[in-house]
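step 3/5: co-fold with 3,4-dihydroxyphenylalanine
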Amino acid sequence: MSTADELARILEEAGVAFEAAGSLQDLRETRARFLGKKGTVTAALRSLGGLPADERALAGQQVNRTKGEVEALFEARKAALERSARSRDLAEHRLDVTLPGAAPPRGHLHPIARVERDMCAFFRTLGYSIEDGPEVETDFHNFGALNFPEDHPARDLQDTIFVEGGNLLRTHTSNVQIRAMTGREPPFRFVAPGRVYRHDLDATHYPMFHQIEAFCVGEDVTFAHLKGTLYAFARHLFGQDARVRFRAHFFPFTEPSAEMDVTWGEGWLEWGGCGMIHPKVLANCGIDPDRWQGFAFGMAIDRTAMLRYGIGNIRHLFDGDVRVLEQL
Ligand code: DAH
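step 4/5: write tokens
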């Protein structure tokens, strides 16, 4: 057989063999049969040396052309195999963007935070500033400056939780009155929400709860302003039909003092305490009580949240049980 016939056969064989290779691995192995060390094309190249000199040049050209053609067939098949591998991959890992997604759970503010923010937003519309105070407090700020006598039973009645070093966990947000008024020149009005602590636990009491304190001092601030503010606050929280009633009461830091109730359904709900800031409290803060007077009130935020969200047991607010909080 002539060299040309031999090479034509090799080329045809390579074409058929490469087509038959089903994978890139197969294809590489098949290539070795032609172009590898022991491949047929390589053998043809080697056999050139045995040819007479006058035939060698032409045969060399023919073998080299065939070698190039086999290479080209290999590359073409390789590209085809790679293309189909890629489309298979795409088909297998197809992403159906029309499938419904997995919705990540969405959180929401705690009911207390919601009510607290709602309350603060209301007072901001009346020109109040938000004021903060410490939860670990001195006896002076929590009791003394608020006109609690040294051995007044009120200090026990409040079930105070003391901490090491003689300080205590504030039993009410009234401490912020002292902290905010001291060193400030009236007129001013503040609202102070925050956590307070008492040694107490049942369905409606928890050792930690939240109060909101409001106080307003000016030259001619009267009890009428206090009533008007509380009425507006009640209507904001409980609706336009809400009413407020006042019962005479005693607090060391206000004079006169009252407890107030707000309408709830058919009845009344105990809502908080209020009064005209005691002249001694003003004086304790360096404010001249002959010139300035003001009102203050304070109430629990938790109770409002319980009413608003229909929560029967205060523990549900603080247990941190997501199943409960999700319902609110
Ligand atoms: N501090 C009182 C308490 O925790 C509530 C209170 C009563 C606050 C009368 C006031 C007030 O500002 O004027 O029971």
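step 5/5: annotate
The chain is about 45% helix and 20% strand.
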